[in-house]
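Retro notes, structure queue

What went well: the backlog is down to a handful. What didn't: a couple of records were mislabeled last round, so from now on we paste the full input next to the output in the thread. Example, using Potassium channel family protein from Devosia ureilytica:
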Amino acid sequence: MATTERRTQSNQSRGAGPHRLRSRLRLLYHGQSTKALRFQATILVVDLAIIAFFIATPLLRESETFLWIDYSIAALLALDLLARGLASNQPTRWLRQLPVIIDIFILVTLLAPTWLFNLGFLRILRLWTLTRTSMVWRPLEKRGLSEYRETVQAVINLLVFIFVVTGFVYTAFANRQSGIAGYVDALYFTVTTMTTTGFGDIVLPGTFGKLTSIIVMIIGISLFVRLAQLVFRPAKVNFPCPQCGLHRHEPDAVHCKACGHLLNIPDEGEG
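Corresponding output:
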């Protein structure tokens, strides 16, 4: 009888260990305590440093320390993915999310940098997946700047697109009679094409090159227009409609645009 009780207690203690670990990770990744916020800020800084490395990868490829940095980042990203998976309430559902799938793909490119170097430009998508987490937006919300979230997201989407296209152009067209001799040339072509400036000093050859330029122009203009709309249009205010609960309204709105209920949005400075 005593042996059975000891076995039960031993099994419970073994099960309690992983449970405590998962609870602690949830508090660190999703909590609001001072310790959790410091942890989240540290993770954010590390992620931004990793993204900077991804942007500079084409320039650092020939460096002797490139592989060492690459594998170190792979280890950090693997630990972060494992920790986020343990912190999730539904790990299976978490694994099916698009940002997680992209992060796993990025991890694979880091583990095989020589074989998958041509796909390395997709690592910048890590910046996009980072904006799918609350760690990026929580500081804005705490400072009452949540109305700028869409604008910041639009800027990030534009930056991600620029660097993804730059990496693709550099990988696919460098040294192929296109005038692209280096990464900076690819960045220059991307920006001039997106803005429809088109100086003509760098032209992608062939039908595939023309199609690439067309896609870059169409998507690039769309992203620029979206960003311009968010920057120049009046910022919406957060005021829950008493009738339908809609939160975002125009600053001068008298009626809710969803249900027509009469609103009483306070002026700036009112308590």
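Agreed that this is the format going forward. Reviewer comment attached to the example: The radius of gyration is 24 Å.
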